[in-house]
Structures are given as C-alpha cells and as structure tokens.
Amino acid sequence: MSLTRDLTRLIREKPVTDGDLEWASLFVLDTLACALGALPTEPARMLKAVAPLAQADTARKAFYLGGLSHILEMDDLHRDSVTHPGSVVIPAAWAVAHDHDLGGEAFLRAVLAGYEACCRVGMSVGKKHYRVWHNTSTCGPFGAALAVAELLGLDDTRTVWALGNAGTQSSGLWEFLAEGAMSKHLHTARAAESGVLASFLAKEGFTGAENILEGEKGFFAGLCLDPIPEAVTAGPERAWQLINTSIKPWPCCRHTHPAIDGAIALHNEIAGEAIARVHVGAYRAALDVCDRPTPEDPYSAKFSLQHTVAIALADGRVDQASFDADARQRMVDERKKVEVELAPKIDAAYPESWGAEVIVETASGRRLSAARYDAKGDPDNPVTAAELSQKARTQLVAGGTSEARADDLIGAILGLPDNRPVRSLGLFETAGDAGPQVRAARSA
Asked: Which of 243, 275, 293, 327 could serve as a FRET partner for 428 with CA atoms 20 to 30 Å apart?
C-alpha cells in the first residue's frame, strides 16, 4: 500500500450528500466569477495569446481557466493546507466535463474529490515547505489529477498512476514575488494542466510512481523539510475539505485579511483622527510573504501588510482600486507608520487559525486595538450565500459580462446539482469574449 492508494480509497469511500453538492456549486461560482472577472486584465490577454480557446485542447483550456482564476487574488483559500484549491481543481474539472459533455452532478462530485486530494496533500507538506514553495502550485496537480480521474472513470490503479505523474510535475517557487513577476498565475495554470495530462496519460496506461509522496526520492524527500505524512489520510470521517475552505472578500493575499478585518473595525473608532503609529502582530508565514513596506506595483501592494492595513484604516474598505497608483501614493506616509512583527500566540495557532492583532496609537495619545483569530470568509466566520452571489455578480460585471448574462450564469452554476450539462453554460464562449479594452495589469 502507498499514501496515494490510501488517499484514492479514502476519497472514493466518502459519502456525498445533496448538501455537499450544493456547497461545491457555491465554490464553483466563486472560482468562475474570479476567472471571468479577470478577463479585461493584461495578464489575461497574455494567457489567451498562448492558449487561444478556438485552438485549445482540453489540457490547454484548463491552463487558461486556471491562470485566469488566480489573477484577481479573490479565489478561495484552504487554511490548513495553505492552498487555493478552486483555481486549480475547478478549471481542470470544468475543461474535462465540458469537452466530454458531462452533467453537473458528476462534475461537482469530481470537484469535491479534487479539493480533498489537493488539501490533504497540502496539509502534509509541513510549515517550512511554504517558505520556498507555493503550496497551490506544488499540491494542486494532485487535486486536478484526482478530479479528472473521477470524470474519466479511472480505476484505483490508474488513478494512483495519475497521482504519481501529477506529483512528479509539482513545482512553483516564491522567488517571483521579490520582483513582482506574474508567475503566480502560471502556477495555477500549469497545476491545472498538469493534472489533466497526468490523468489522460493514466487512462492510456502510462504509469506513474505509486510512492511519489513518501518514496526515498519522492515529493516529501525533495520538497518538504518537515513533512507530516499521516495528514494525507487522517480523519477520513471529517467533512469534505471543500466545506472547510475559505472565501475571500478582498482582492489581496489572504495572509493580509485578518489584519484588514481588524483595521476596518478600527476605522470608525479613529473617526478621521491622525495616526501616530500602528502595530501589527501576525504569524510567521504572513511576515515571510507580506512584510513589504514599500510596494511599487499593484501586485506587491496586494502582498503588503503595511499597505493593506494603512488603506483599510484610512478608507474603511479594501477593493481593487486600493492597489492602484493613486492609492499607493496616497498611503506612502501612512505605510511608514505601520510596524509588523511576530505575535507568538497567533503564530502558534497557525495554520488552523489565521489571525492578527492591530494596535493603533493616535496623535492625541489614544490607543485602540482589535484582534482577529478567524478572518471574514473562514468557515468559522463565513460569508453568506447571498454575499457570495453578490461578490460573483460584481466580478462578472466588472469583467465585461452583461448584468443579465451574469444573473443567468449565477443561476445556472448554482443549478449544477440538478445535473445540468456543464457545456450548456457556455462558459468558454464567455471566457473567450474579452472586450477590446484591456486594463493595464491593475489586478496582476
């Protein structure tokens, strides 16, 4: 027996209820709205140039949709694995279900399975993996491959081969962030595509390493300094990992969200008074990725605790415009007042809890504080179905979808549990229909 075989059996033995399918449809809506909302951006134009839908095969469709899904930094986040499963699993499953003309129920079941594989592998990599490797990119191929294996009806052995070849394609380094490069979109694009290719090959009998995770020269040995192999199969009776995944209300790195929550709460208490000093206490991973006092472009601003906290305190909100050139210039002096450091109690709770503490000292000497242990959108502090639908509608319209088409698409996606054919939604027709006006990497 191997971890990949045990994982395959665990997932295939988990019961799926009507409620699980409804949950899955909500996450599909969130991911696809993120993708279509990104259509007018410059990175989307570049993805389309190398993956034109009119000529794309199934794997390249997954590549295109996977890249789109991650551009706006609004896609979902699974805390315990530190992965964005939706932007990898859903594009891969959608491309296959579309090209094979499958129904919504089979598609949603595959999405549940893919999230489970991605998140369980992600929970096993250990904290140190994330310092160099982007978990979504390294663990995502496992989720994409498992989802596609379900749609193709692969038996356990061929599914294990697919996971073996998904794992050998794992990659994705954080170095891009130091230069504000666009590689993060490539990470999700390639993870989705790799999973599709791995399962398609397995269907043909192309073998993959069964011990890809725990083998002497496998995934853990090569990429993980402190792996937790038992996490791959722990707690098989738990709810589906998709249900434990968080929805993002703000278009920036999830590590900044607990601090944004606290800063927004303090905005009204400050009531426009000048700020003298701001202290942000966070966990180590948040500091490793988001300690960026002088962001010089929209992307680095989305990964800056200093910027996100400063603008949340100033404006009482965070949206796409919070990261443009005017907003960054307006916050130059305010960012200098924000100090970030490790908060041991909050760090000890990570990754089960993503928290932050924000302390503000005003010019008059007042001291205000807010602590958050679960960010808005976490399973412990969830968004409602209505809030998620409104988020999706806003993104769809911003991406160039008409209001009527947006409403129809939302209803159709939420109707997938009734087994509506995936192809009938015409998503790729919409995704290939970006308008002539392209926003200059506002959300890159």
From this structure: 243
**Residue carrying structure tokens 């073996």:** 164
Q: At what angle do helices 183-203 and 156-167 cross, to 10 degrees?
A: 150
Residue partners of 318: CB distance under 8 A and separation at least 6: 250, 251, 252, 260, 264, 308, 311, 312
Half-sphere exposure of 398 (CA within 13 A, CB side): 19
Q: How far is CA 158 from the centre of its chain?
A: 28
The answer to whether 138 touches 108, Cβ cutoff 8 Å, is: no
Confidence (pTM): 0.92
CA angle 166, 302, 29 (to 5 degrees): 55
Which phi and psi (to 5°) does residue 431 adopt?
Answer: -70, -25
Q: Please state, in angstroms and rounded to a whole number, the distance separating the CA atoms of residues 126 and 185.
A: 23
Terminal CA-CA length for the chain: 43
Per the CB < 8 A criterion, the answer to whether 56 and 62 are in contact is no
Helices 86-99 and 58-69, packing angle to 10 deg: 150
C-alpha angle with apex 222: 217 to 226, nearest 5 degrees? 115
Helices first, then strands: H and E counts in the chain: 20, 4
CA distance 297 to 198: 36
Going by the DSSP 8-state scheme, the letter that residue 362 receives in this structure is E
Cα–Cα distance measured from residue 265 to residue 256, given in angstroms and rounded to the nearest whole number = 14
Tell me the DSSP string of 22-75.
HHHHHHHHHHHHHHHHTTTBHHHHHHHHHS-TTT--HHHHHHHHHHHHTTTS-S
CA dist 28 and 32 (Å) reads: 6
Among residues 136, 113, 419, the alpha carbon closest in space to that of 254 is found at 136
